[in-house]
């Protein structure tokens, strides 16, 4: 079985497993405990916080651990909008955001906020000029993802953030897909809030983080004790937080090498498929994650193709979050892809463990299954 669905989730890195082992086997203490059993877990949480911060160029005190990317997005979008309700009730996002952003925006709309969803161009790019045109005096937040999970297009976040700040709005970006694949620095991006998802980064599912720039206040979504500086109460998930910290340290150390492996295998797959099939590349040809290959095959049923490959090649028709849907992905629709192409859309995403030999075999299997 060849795994080409790394954008859906990643396997655990061996170093991540080793980092978690002590907190599974014997260091079970509550990190809030003042006795000896809490000391090692407390140090593990602090070390992981530093590792996450170092990966994104933040201060450790600006990192809040969460239960995953979805919670981080909810906390950023809903928490920021509610905290600034007295200043306005308008939020801007894009038409191709992950549901973990679009649904919180929909929840805000039910509370009386106005939400503007910006269109994208044929490559999936959000225009900073369109952002500026959509801004209003009552705009309190802009949320645009750093890189799209389906097509891999990398957005001009620094430009959009500059526009947001010039008008007094906060800037949030969902960086779940970009971390570990391309450089991510919160100061270079100019963001106030940034989402981290562990399981996209070779860490466990069920753990994530939110970067919260010093001085930015959010309304809490969860109420309880004083953990995470009172921003996210609940006893810390030490086991998985330690894993996330290790994953971030590995990602920082191996970023260039891993990106090259991903880019090489992605491009090799594209080359092999293009030789014998009529393909349409979805996403920006250059401003794209190094691991993501989203292609449409004219007249092919993507669902049937993936069913034929089920026990041999793992990939996604659109995004994994919409895997049961019959209709073409909303992201592909937003690009203006015609029906005869859209229904044949498949996302292949390589990872740091993908080999050239796997790609050669996968290409053969895919072409034979059309």
Reconstruct the topology from this structure:
Blueprint lengths: L1 E2 L10 H12 L13 H18 L6 E4 L2 H15 L6 E5 L4 H12 L3 E5 L9 H7 L4 E5 L13 H10 L3 E5 L11 H4 L3 E5 L10 E5 L25 H39 L2 E4 L9 E6 L4 H7 L4 E2 L15 H5 L4 H4 L2 E5 L6 H14 L1
Parallel strand pairs: 1-11, 3-4, 3-5, 5-6, 6-7
Antiparallel strand pairs: 2-8, 7-8, 9-10, 10-12
CATH topology of the largest domain: Aspartate Aminotransferase, domain 2
CATH superfamily of the largest domain: Type I PLP-dependent aspartate aminotransferase-like (Major domain)
Largest sheet: 7 strands, mixed
Q: For this structure, what is the CATH class of the largest domain? A: Alpha Beta
Number of strands: 12
| H-E string | EHHEHEHEHEHEHEEHEEHEHHEH
Strand content: 5-15%
Query: For the CA atoms, what is the radius of gyration?
Result: 21 Å
User: How would you sum up the global shape?
Assistant: globular
Structural class: alpha/beta
- Note the total helix count: 12
How would you describe this structure to a colleague?
Helix content is 40%, strand content 14%. It is built from twelve helices and twelve strands. The protein has helices spanning 14-25, 39-56, 69-83, 99-110, 128-134, 157-166, 186-189, 238-276, 302-308, 330-334, 339-342, 356-369; strands at residues 2-3, 63-66, 90-94, 114-118, 139-143, 170-174, 193-197, 208-212, 279-282, 292-297, 313-314, 345-349. Helix 5 (128-134) runs parallel beside helix 6 and helix 8 crosses helix 12 (356-369).
